[in-house]
Amino acid sequence: MTDDDGRTAYTGALTARPAGAHALLVELPDAERTAAFHAEVLRRRAAGTLPPVEEIVPGARTVLLDGVPDPEALARRVADWEVPPVCDDTGDVVEIPVRYDGPDLADVAVLWGVGPDEVGTLHGSHTYRVAFCGFAPGFGYLTGLPPRLHVPRRSTPRTRVPAGAVALAGPYSAVYPRATPGGWQLIGTMPDPRPLWDPARERAALLTPGTRVRFVTAVGSTAGTATGGTASVGTGPVGTGPEAGA
Length: 246
Description:
This protein is an alpha+beta fold. It has 4 helices and 16 strands. The protein has helices at 31-47, 71-78, 105-112, 116-124, and strands spanning 10-11, 15-18, 23-27, 55-58, 62-66, 82-83, 93-98, 128-133, 140-143, 158-161, 165-169, 172-175, 180-182, 185-189, 212-217, 230-232. The strands form 5 sheets. The protein has a 5-stranded mixed beta sheet with strand order 9-8-15-7-16. It has a 4-stranded antiparallel beta sheet with strand order 2-3-5-4, with helices on one face. Strands 12-11-14 form a 3-stranded antiparallel beta sheet. A hairpin with a 4-residue loop joins strand 2 and strand 3. Helix 3 (105-112) packs across helix 4. The longest helix is centred in the first third of the chain and has 17 residues, at 31-47. It is elongated. The chain starts with 9 loop residues before the first strand and ends in a 14-residue tail after the last strand. The relative contact order is 0.16. Mean pLDDT is 84; it is low at 1-10, 220-230 and 234-244.
């Protein structure tokens, strides 16, 4: 079945079950359908056709609907939804400046079968979307890399990954908003990671689920906000698998 734009809609292929007295956990078979279901929930809420839900929390293969008056009734409803795939050209775009100077750049180049100087070009040629957030405040898991560019986590995690590190693991790209341990492949550096998490901002996290992201080579100094359209993030100086951590 297709939607109004001619895209093939997903039907079935989900499991919905109550999670406590007032929450519904929806499990999907893959990241693509999870993103599509999350987008459909947001669309229906905006259109006023979604029953009352206080919080919507996407994960790698799940979407949690919390604050639901009748989880069992909602489970029956979502089972009949026709969910179109996510349209890749909708949503805000945040541009992340990157210096492709990461310590794992050469290793990733080998895995990709290219020269180290080509990794940045390949990585920056795709548009990503924040699938979900976790691990640390402001840490977004970005999908958009084609399967041929997926890479494994490092066999030995680092005890400290610096803030601003641009990293890869499995199907995901990410930028570390703060210094933490981590086992992802580090390919670059965001010169100023402070915009990724700003508690003083109304929306503290810059990269929230559904936001589109592009990585651009860091040149000069720019600043911007993620309020709509395309936003460039400042470049000033600043001092378990991929689904379960970094």
